[in-house]
Design a protein that fits this description.
This protein is α/β, with parallel strands linked by helices. Helix content is about 40%, strand content about 15%.
């Protein structure tokens, strides 16, 4: 409110319910399933992110480690010109109705080039499920996630691909994914949000 002496950041409303779902399992299966979600590609920065993932990250992964990864792209309205040029290691899932169940089938998430302002739900949703996530520092909206501990930071194609190669190690995936989920629980749990609201409303 204008003139307020106390402010706080309330996370996306679906995060508490996501945290109440189980963490993903960590396995040694191949190929590893990597999530890139843009919600809707009618938004310019989501289209830019998709182009970057599909024209740079996916081909570089396949060049360096064939058959080790498949990238699963979710979101509505991926342009036809992009669909026509999908690399062989990419699956376009489109709109996923049961997104929570779908998240439980992923091993890793990337949020490449999803804009530079605001809180990105498509970053925090996989983190809340314990999915190790490669993202950019600016996508964290001021929350205290530490690169190399709760998430991995990558802004260039090389950095993202290098981190994905590191995450072939199941132990590292579980370490990063579990730490990210633990911090997300501290920040976004239903109890934490209710406590924040009580603090705001307290006279």
């Amino acid at each position: 409110a204008m003139g307020s002496q106390q402010t706080t950041t309330i996370p996306l409303r679906n995060l508490p319910s996501i945290l109440e779902l189980p963490s993903i399992p960590y396995s040694d299966r191949r190929p590893l399933r990597v999530l890139f979600s843009g919600s809707t590609f009618s938004v310019q920065h989501n289209r830019d992110g998709a182009r970057h993932v599909l024209s740079e990250i996916a081909p570089e992964l396949e060049r360096r480690v064939p058959n080790e990864f498949t990238l699963h792209v979710t979101g509505k309205k991926l342009p036809e010109e992009i669909l026509k040029t999908l690399p062989p290691n990419v699956v376009y899932e489109g709109y996923v109705k049961d997104y929570s169940t779908f998240l439980g089938t992923m091993d890793i998430a990337i949020t490449s080039h999803l804009g530079t302002v605001g809180m990105h739900g498509k970053l925090f949703e996989p983190v809340c499920r314990g999915i190790p996530t490669v993202t950019a520092p600016y996508a964290l909206a001021g929350f205290p996630f530490v690169g190399g501990e709760h998430v991995l930071f990558g802004t260039s194609t090389k950095e993202v691909v290098d981190h994905l190669l590191e995450l072939r190690d199941r132990v590292l995936r579980e370490k990063i994914g579990s730490a990210g989920r633990k911090l997300a629980t501290e920040l976004f749990s239903r109890k934490r949000i209710l406590n924040q609201l009580e603090e705001i409303l307290r006279p």
